[in-house]
Write a structure and sequence with these properties.
Elements: H1 2-20, E1 23-26, E2 43-44, E3 46-47, E4 53-60, E5 67-73, E6 80-82, E7 93-98, E8 104-108, E9 131-133, E10 141-143, E11 161-169, E12 173-176, E13 179-180, E14 191-193, E15 205-207, E16 214-221, E17 223-224, E18 226-227, H2 229-249
Parallel strand pairs: 1-4, 2-5, 3-18, 10-14
Antiparallel strand pairs: 4-16, 5-11, 5-17, 6-9, 6-16, 7-8, 7-11, 12-13, 12-15
């Protein structure tokens, strides 16, 4: 029992040290190069899954580029993503969130037109930058089928797990076949749920074009690193050891 308590104490200490830090992922320095634009080529933001992921940085090096990242949303109630201020993100962005199967969940082009987001710390979002998350006024969550109807969608996520987050220039549109997944014109500030006809289908291409390039920062809350294989092995070994100690105790 003494060994069991020591092992549990060590595991708790590691978790506390991990969650105390704020971690940044860079597309090139950590990811090794350009992130892809679809779930099959997305850059996996991997690391210690108990470590909070607070920022992703990168660059749209060629016109029309889209970068997609696989992240772990470990606290859905606290999740947000936004593209910071105009010095951090140098072009007019769009953020799009997909589930673990690549099916669309939410999109925002221009941040909600209000000064504060309740319960989240996204202050300092620049003009023409993007925000996805809870805490905006209820009327700013809208269905892409009824974009002019305030509150025609209700904010929420399926639960903790793997998600895909894409950043693009506002003129690039996620699509299924030749059909846009989201409402892609005015009003631009609502946070949109997908069109009903596209909600159950994974993204397979991007429409639209632009020659704009630039750097970006995505600020995150409620997100963690995707567990590395080594982390999964260590976790499995720890659980196996715990089970073994329990058996011996019996």
């Amino acid at each position: 029992m003494k060994h069991l308590n020591l092992w549990l104490s060590s595991l708790t200490a590691v978790a506390l040290m991990a969650t105390a830090g704020a971690q940044i992922w860079d597309e090139t320095a950590n990811g090794g190069g350009d992130a892809g634009d679809l779930p099959s080529s997305a850059q996996v933001v991997s690391g210690v899954h108990t470590m909070p992921l607070t920022r992703i940085t990168g660059r749209m090096a060629t016109g029309g580029e889209v970068d997609m990242f696989a992240i772990l949303i470990c606290n859905p109630d606290q999740f947000f993503a936004h593209t910071g201020n105009t010095s951090e993100t140098t072009y007019d962005t769009k953020l799009t969130l997909f589930d673990s199967q690549g099916r669309p969940l939410w999109m925002n082009d221009d941040r909600p037109n209000e000064t504060a987001i309740t319960g989240h710390p996204p202050n300092g979002i620049g003009g023409l930058r993007s925000y996805i998350g809870g805490g905006a006024s209820a009327g700013l969550y809208r269905s892409s089928d009824t974009p002019s109807v305030a509150g025609s969608a209700t904010w929420g996520l399926p639960g903790p797990g793997l998600y895909y987050l894409a950043i693009s220039h506002w003129q690039r549109n996620p699509r299924v076949g030749s059909a846009d997944i989201f409402h892609e014109s005015s009003p631009y500030d609502p946070i949109y749920a997908p069109k009903a006809a596209a909600a159950g289908s994974p993204i397979d291409n991007w429409g639209g074009s632009t020659t704009t390039t630039g750097s970006y920062t995505i600020h995150l809350g409620g997100a963690c690193f995707v567990p590395e294989p080594a982390s999964m092995v260590a976790l499995g070994a720890g659980l196996a050891g715990l089970l073994g100690l329990r058996r011996r105790k019996k």
